[in-house]
Amino acid sequence: MFKRKIASLIEDYLRGPREKILVIKGARQIGKSFIVRETSKKAYPHYVEVNLQADFDGPRLFSPENIRTTSSFYLQLSALYGDDLGTRDDTVVFLDEIQVYPHLLTLFKALQAERRFTYIASGSLLGVTLKHTFIPMGAIDEVAMYPMDFEEFLWANHVGEEAISHVKDCFESLRPVEPALHDLFLSRFREFVLCGGLPDAVKALIEQKNVVAMRKVHADTYAYYKDDATKYDRQNKLKIERIYSLMASYMENKVKRIPVSQIEKDVRRTFDHYQDEFDYLVSSGIALAVKAVSDPRFPLVESSAKNLIKLYYNDVGILTNILYKTNINAVLNLDKGPNLGSAYETVAAMELIAHGHDLYYFDSKKVGEVDFLTNDYDSLSVLPIEIKSGNDQNNFRAIPKLVDPEGNYRLPKGYVFGNKNIVSKTGNLITLPIYMIMFF
To answer: Whose CA is closest to 260, among 247, 275, 268, 270?
Structure first.
């Protein structure tokens, strides 16, 4: 069992007052069911798991026709799992793939009020479902889950907490990491770029040392994500698939936005024609959105443009499989490999999203482009972030203008992350090794 940060959140929920039902949303194949199952079994003596997708595909015992009230829900639960049901303080009822039965979400407030059991729910298209389902206020505590982040990948590689804490101290005190430790962390980072954070892919790489099996996980997951579009919207399935397929090719371009005219090869189309499709990709958790801002000032949402969005895959392993298949040297070779700019940026997007940041970018003909901007709520300012994958970490033009104390924007600081073991601060610009993005 890989250690996941969300496990502590689940443990806290199970030990706490449980005033709302914990609902975990996220894409398929990221380990939601496994971590809920293992954490719940350790915490409570009684555990019941109801796979609602399997029920929907089979007997439909929990369908709207059979479940209209909490009483009918209890009756069905008792008929199937009566021997495993205890009380609220010793029984977890896990409702997996809840998105197939949105009517159950509407019962959550009543189920919680009756305090028969402790509930946890999860779903792979739950972000989409929640946007279109009425749920009584105060019924759920909604939490997003993502693929394993880089620190979790280090744990899976048996990198110790002492080493990670030491590197974090270097990040916070702005001092270089010892060369041997830097080489180790940079190598692990490159492996993460290759593998990503889908638990089955991580298992194939670390435990089985099987690159072919790892890439099969990526290919299968990519296919699952495209197939899921049919369950959401059969009419617009092809448009969703088209946008999802275009993402990799446009991430390799200087301008990473997908031109909407290319989706159906129709120059008359605008972003508004595809709003629902873009919303699906982001709400389902299979794509990460980075919105453009016209003015890099706090709060960024005030100047964000809804129709200028960069999309990144939710997992970098999916991207590197599309680009390089089983050629691992394309990713692992520090000196002779291809430009990994899009892959490095995907990792940065994964890390920042997983750590709770809303993502924006800034692009101006006059100033240039900055890869990411995030809100800094402590200083009520904006933090610009530049990601460099090559040997030239000083090849940028925009970010110094944003942090120039005599310039137009005067942001208090900015960050550049790259391959070299450079930890420095020049004016308001801080340069750090790429793997330190995990502490941001």
So the answer is: 270
pTM listed for this prediction: 0.95
Place of tokens 């040297």: 329
DSSP 322-368: HHHTT-THHHH-TTTSPP-HHHHHHHHHHHHHHTT---EEEEETTTE
Among candidate residues 324, 342, 355, 354, the one with its CA nearest the CA of residue 388: 342
- pLDDT tens for 264-285 read 888 888 888 999 899 999 999 9
Three-state SS for 128?
Answer: helix
DSSP letter assigned to residue 434 = G
pLDDT in tens, 310-349: 999 999 999 999 999 999 999 998 777 788 999 999 999 9
Query: Token digits for 140?
Result: 């759920």
Assign residue 138 a region (left: φ > 0; alpha: ψ between -120 and 50; beta: otherwise).
left
Among 60, 31, 426, 40, which residue's Cα sits nearest to residue 221?
31
What's the per-residue H, E or C state across 233-265? Answer: CCCCHHHHHHHHHHHHHHHCCCCCCCCHHHCCC
